[in-house]
């Protein structure tokens, strides 16, 4: 993973507050921003987040209570499934905290983010904040967005042609391997979190490292003290693999398969965010399971907008995009996965062609 040395854990990056960085008061984004502000959609939602954070903490406590009550039983695998969903919800709460949707103050958001991320699920808040900040600043830019860097998967035919190592080995069939690979995402988050402790951008290195160590010590101790070794390993595998699939499934529909940029090909802020993002249609259950990330266009335009405001903002943003002629892409959930997988299969074509030629 590449990191940016000038981004700190506690510094709110400009990408998280785009209204401040709009240089032209008459720009397309500035006009949209005024409409959103006049509609009152950037206001805080303390009641919503009080309930949401309380429910997540309560369900996490209930999950561990059920774990202790069941004892050394194979029924613990049902608890593992439940805990995978709760860990996913905690990650989504940490996401909102990073964008200061919950608390206005930067330091307060960081403290709560470290508690939910590092201590709650074993994911470094500072590492993820650095990575996600760069993604928001340049979504789907092949050189600037770490989420489309050619690591294990390739995201464009050019990346496929230049691929090597693991990316080249699996790139030709990456569409079929995408969801199986998500089972490793929970473990990948922990490896990335630990490796990031040596990075210069981690200002709260000691605190984050201590919380990560405390989480892993408590987690593994609980598993191997309550369960037999075989059941403990089974619980860990089911829990972490399903957590990875759930978390990956909430982010996969957002940008995968949408246009990518390279070099100096960077449109203005509004188009950069809208053209690279995909919304997912659905009701309240979709909102709950995807944590509001199904309104990806609105989220990228106004990252600090509280989650419950995104549904109302969608109406304003969609109408405005139609007004100025900017494509606004929205699909159902299954179609969003289909588009992402078709894109992955298409970008792997150069690798398949080269293998046939050889």
UniProtKB/TrEMBL annotation:
Q: Which GO terms describe its molecular function?
A: oxidoreductase activity, acting on paired donors, with oxidation of a pair of donors resulting in the reduction of molecular oxygen to two molecules of water
Which keywords does this chain's UniProt record carry? Membrane, Transmembrane, Transmembrane helix
Domain spans labelled Fatty acid desaturase = 73-331
**Any one cellular component term from GO for this entry?**
membrane
GO biological process, any = lipid biosynthetic process
Transmembrane ranges, per UniProt, are 49-68, 74-98, 110-128, 165-184, 205-227, 233-252
Q: Which residues form a coiled coil?
A: none
Bias-annotated ranges (Polar residues): 1-10
Which parts of this chain are annotated as the region Disordered? Answer: 1-26
What name does UniProt use for this protein? Acyl-CoA desaturase
Q: Which organism is it from?
A: Streptomyces nodosus
Instruction: Tell me the classification of the organism that encodes this protein.
Output: Bacteria, Bacillati, Actinomycetota, Actinomycetes, Kitasatosporales
